[in-house]
Design brief:
Layout: H1 5-8, H2 13-30, E1 39-43, H3 49-57, E2 62-65, H4 68-81, E3 86-89, H5 98-104, E4 107-111, H6 114-125, E5 132-136, H7 150-162, E6 168-172, H8 181-194, E7 199-201, H9 208-213, E8 218-221, H10 223-226
Parallel strand pairs: 1-2, 1-8, 2-3, 3-4, 4-5, 5-6, 6-7
This protein binds pyridoxal-5'-phosphate.
The site of pyridoxal-5'-phosphate (PLP) has 14 residues, from β8 and α10.
Length: about 230
Amino acid sequence: MPMTSTDTNPRTPAARLAAIRARIATAAKDAGRRAEDVVLVAVSKTFEEDAILPLLDAGQRVFGENRVQEAARKWPPLRERYGDIELHLIGPLQTNKLADALELFDVFHTLDREKLAEALVKARDKGTVLPRLFVQINTGEEPQKAGIAPGAADDFLRRCRDEWALDIEGLMCIPPTEEEPALHFALLEKIARRNGLVKLSMGMSGDFETAVRLGATHVRVGSALFGTRD
Ligand SMILES: *Cc1c(COP(=O)(O)O)cnc(C)c1O
């Protein structure tokens, strides 16, 4: 596997975790915010138990996965050993995997369409306790990317509240790779604020400090913690 700066510096997973936490704290402080108000979601997708265990042993408890089946294979045994794990779904969810996802995840970051909202309502009506929910906004309006277009966000959030009685905790975005992420983070913050939402899931390995300065409450960091994915 090629070596990159993110997977060699610092060398141990615990040291990488400490370094990321310190960078989050510095960015929060710069923005007049408290480090405790930023949740680090360690994105463990594609990584197996051998890579995850050192982070658990270093005290990390909040993890993100983007595929339901992969998470269902990896996490139940880890949960048996480390009871207080919080699992976040950060990838698109097909409604035929919803039941499995509801069993596994504490938080969905990717409520991105009417059909999924309606499937959640149906599950709730059958007695399922829903996870905490973030609505994904496609801030770059990229056709290949999931999420609600910025212009449709207010209406979708209103329907979540009035039509579906879904309790929305915040918003999430994944900026286009070629664009300045700060513009997208600022747009997400603006949409959240005018809709009375306070949680923002934004920022990844390359831009989490910018996200924290612009108000991120959840940063989703993968490769800077675990190394380069194959
Ligand atoms: C993979 C992924 C991340 C983590 O990306 P890194 O650049 O490795 O930190 C964050 N958010 C989502 C939605 C992802 O799919």
